[in-house]
Design goal:
This protein has 14 helices and seven strands. The strands form two sheets. Strands 1-2-3-4 form a four-stranded antiparallel beta sheet. The protein has three domains: 58 residues; 93 residues, Tyrosine recombinase, N-terminal domain (DNA polymerase, domain 1), CATH 1.10.150.130; 174 residues, hpI Integrase, Chain A (Orthogonal Bundle). By secondary structure, the chain is α+β, with helices and mostly antiparallel strands. Keywords: DNA recombination, DNA-binding. InterPro entries: CB, DNA_brk_join_enz, Integrase-like_cat_sf, Integrase_catalytic, Integrase_recombinase_N, Tyrosine_recombinase_XerCD. It comes from Actinomadura violacea. This is Site-specific integrase.
Length: 378
Amino acid sequence: MRVWVGQYRASIYREGDGWTGAISLGRSPTGTRRRLKRKASSEKALMRKLVQAVDDLNRGVRADRYYTIERAVTEFLVQLAKQGRAPSTIQAYRGLARHHLIAQLGHIRVQALTADHVEAWLHDRAGHLSSSSLSIVHGLLKRALRRAQRHDKVSRNVAALVDTPHGLPRRRSQAMNVQQAAALLAEAAHGGHRLGAYPVLGLLTGLRTEELRALQWSEVDLEVGAVYVTRAARHTADTKTPRSRRGLALPQGGLAVLRAHRAKQEAERAAAGGNYHDHGLVFCRPDGGPLTGQNVRDDFRVITAAAGLGTVWVPRELRHTFVSILSDHGVTTETIRDLVGHASTHITETVYRHQIRPLVRGGAEAMERVFGGLLHAA
């Protein structure tokens, strides 16, 4: 059966258990016949596909049976890396895309992807990813398809038609109590750990992990007892905010641990000889090279386990513990703001709201005096 679909003539016929339609597109410059084929289980569904194909042709969308979601996402990430994004960010995006996007949708052609595909995929991943990670992978798909639209590979962005569902609840950062912090400090300072000084300095100063990893000996004054934060382990090498550049006094106990740490580092340098690559870092690998975040996390778990605290803690919680202990002991929010390098007390109160003390209790106490007897009697 021959029909017209827009300005194109199409042939429709039964084939196997379904229907096939072929649109004649004339001949190529070499004289070969050009045809666009679609298949469907019913004649009605086939007509919808043919109409969509013609609409794509009119929009200038080029049919490419090999342009899959995997290609679209991979090409988008290559382009994103050229825009100056942090290598660590690109690496994280690639890992999420590989394991949670390409593995499920990568084989589908961009033109064949539907909103139903995307919705089913997101709800499946919601049982494996946190809400923030789920939002990232959904965003990668939307942006990859938007780029495909710009290059006339697909007519519409079906990923943008679907809302991101909630994922797994993210583990909230915790703070150690004084007894736990004391156990950690004792183990870190006297347990013979190569990077024992790392949690000591982190807990006593509240430095970010990225600030500790980038800290250089030229920024530590062991005579005065101070540490100066001027850089961070970020792709720009700069601190997170201008306010993060700060100088902090060190407790005497922390100075003693840092002196011992430097002596051990000097011994490592002498033993390595020409194989030592000196970056001037306070915390580094045995060959002098910079530490990765994973290096620090692995060593930190060993130390917390040896201190009897288990392996549930992560290095960033040293900063939360610092804020919590100071707040419990009467240090004002304004002072804590300056110590941790926040631009305002609003950030301090928002990010560390579970650690900041004291609570504002005046209203609760007044209402208890007025209504407490009635409620307790009930």
